[in-house]
Amino acid sequence: MSLISEGAGLRGPMRGPLRGPLAAGPDVAFDEPSLASVGDYIALLKPRVMSLVVFTALTGLAVAPGTLHPLTAFTALLCIAVGAGASGALNMWYDADIDAVMTRTSRRPVPRGRVKPREALAFGLTLSGFAVVTLGLLVNWAAGALLAFTIFFYAVIYTMWLKRATPQNIVIGGAAGAFPPMIGWASVTGSLSLEPILLFLIIFFWTPPHFWALALYRAEDYARAGIPMLPVVSGDATTRRQILLYTAILVPLGIAPWLLGYAGFIYGITAVVTGAAMLVLSWQVLRERRPIETASRRLFAFSILYLFLLFAVLLADRGWGGLIARLAA
């Protein structure tokens, strides 16, 4: 259910031959007794990713029509957060072998030997079951089914299949990170409509420029791990063109909630200004050449701010008033 990449500043890869998720090489002591602390299990949840997932889900919940009891709203967000954490744990279980050889992921709990792979698997499956069943029983089964599909999509379709099979892994797999606003909306209404689908599309088309900007200056890391990211398979020039193409699709989608009457003038101005900045940065990435890659780093950092601002302003412009009124009712 990942929305943003993690650990860009970590150092010291732990090397070992890639033999699958349960065997990451002789340097990773998976057979030793578990040394896991509470902090290690929190790390399995990918808390930074979880926070953005909860934020976008909150936006979907807040802008949805209808009423929701405060306790029910809290339960929905808690289940979405736990589901996101479960996805992260399952991802770290399966990707232990490649995490061990990538600089930015080598300090995660499983490749470090702090958490055994089977413990990460059991943790992820337990949290998944808890989140889906609780959301279905206490909120509604439409939201529960969407959460179950999101976890399955991220853990199985993306992590186990697409990530290692195709340079389009991020494009298709990005759907997993785009579902939370739809789950938040369905928690209130029990159904979906055009507005949450539009929020889904914004995140979906945001994901490739965000991750490919990172991949441009982490290409050697991905190549060492054998992950067919677009810069590794098709080269920098193709990746830079694709970043600009997806950004050109993303920007009108970001403005669309205002144009369609779902958001007010403040959101519209924010979407136009930040969208223009995304286009400028993407153009700079297209014109940039190795080894400097300053523009790629700037785009990666700004893309996080871009998505946050869109949803924050939408929440303030459209969601908070209605949400507060429903909670007070």
Give the tags:
Tetracycline Repressor, domain 2, 15 helices, 72% helix, single chain, flat, 329 residues, mainly alpha
What does this structure look like?
- The chain has a single domain, classed as Tetracycline Repressor, domain 2.
- Helices cover 72% and strands 0% of the residues.
- It is built from 15 helices and no strands.
CATH superfamily: UbiA prenyltransferase
Which shape, going by the Cα principal axes?
flat
Mean pLDDT over the full residue set: 88
Which structural class fits the helix and strand makeup? mainly alpha
**How much is the radius of gyration in Å?**
20 Å
Strand tally: 0
Order of helices and strands: HHHHHHHHHHHHHHH
CATH class value: Mainly Alpha
| Integer tally of domains | 1
- Runs in which pLDDT lies below 50 for 5 or more consecutive residues are 7-30
Number of distinct helices? 15
Architecture (CATH level 2) name: Orthogonal Bundle
Q: Tell me the quaternary state.
A: single chain
Percent of residues in helices:
over 70%
Distance between the termini: 33 Å
Share in β-strands: under 5%
